[in-house]
Design goal:
Blueprint: H1 3-19, E1 24-35, E2 40-50, E3 59-68, E4 74-87, E5 90-108, E6 111-126, E7 131-147, E8 158-169, E9 176-188, E10 193-204, E11 211-225
Parallel strand pairs: 1-11
Antiparallel strand pairs: 1-2, 2-3, 3-4, 4-5, 5-6, 6-7, 7-8, 8-9, 9-10, 10-11
Length: 238
């Protein structure tokens, strides 16, 4: 595709968002994976998003977990996190979340298919209303990644990845609450650092009306390995 077609596509996308009164939002992530040994690993992540205003953050989250590799393709994990929303520069809602996760990978040639299932329990507090609530949510994500200039991911590799994730809330209506679609590129700088960027479309479903959010994603990943023997794995938007 020529540069002119890329510019035309970007212009049409921005024109469509403007017509729908939807803005571009920011989605910034840094995550760290540390392999304690051949099987066990810990994971930590921080996120900062500007949803209503690209340049002004109104959401952040800090989370972490511990996982165990049953095999190179099967990695369950348990995690906890704190999530905070702001509205008009004031604290709107706080969330504490715990979750169980299972990831199973399948490979076909250079392509990697990551299947992720997650079950979450959340507790919310809204200080303006002094209200407490909770939620149980189930998520499934299929992520497809492929290295573009190498047979596998190694320093200097550019990779493409795309995923679709669906969210189901069992304690509220509607049951099908959210859909995320992501597409982007990543670059493996060395054995530790990788950067990634892309576009993430999020569709929120609610009885009061549906909402689209368009994110520009930027991520930095660190993969630390005490033994120095682990294969490099791509980290994707969460």
């Amino acid at each position: 595709m020529s540069k002119r077609l890329y510019v035309l596509f970007a212009f049409l996308l921005l024109l469509k968002l403007s017509a729908q009164k939807e803005n571009i939002s920011s989605y910034n992530v840094i995550n760290v994976t540390y392999h304690i040994n051949q099987k066990s690993f810990v994971y930590a992540e921080g996120q900062l998003r500007g949803i209503n205003d690209f340049a002004y953050p109104d959401y952040y989250e800090i989370k972490g977990g511990i996982g165990y590799e049953l095999s190179d393709r099967h990695k369950p994990l348990i995690g906890i996190g704190r999530y905070v929303n702001y509205k008009e520069h004031s604290l709107d809602k706080e969330e504490f979340r715990v979750w169980l996760q299972d990831v199973y990978d399948l490979k076909a040639g250079k392509f990697k298919f990551e299947n992720r299932v997650r079950a979450e329990k959340s507790w919310f507090y809204s200080p303006a209303k002094d209200e407490h609530s909770d939620r149980i949510r189930l998520r499934y994500r299929l992520n497809v990644s492929v290295p573009l200039n190498a047979e596998k991911v190694k320093p200097g590799t550019i990779s493409a990845n795309a995923y679709d994730e669906v969210f189901f809330v069992t304690t509220d209506e509607p049951l099908f609450a959210r859909n995320r679609v992501f597409g982007g590129l990543s670059y493996q700088i060395d054995k530790i650092f990788s950067i990634s960027s892309g576009y993430l479309w999020q569709r929120e479903f609610a009885e009061s009306g549906n909402k689209n959010i368009h994110f520009l994603y930027l991520g930095l990943s660190l993969n630390l390995d005490r033994s120095g023997l682990k294969e490099i794995n791509l980290q994707t938007a969460d």
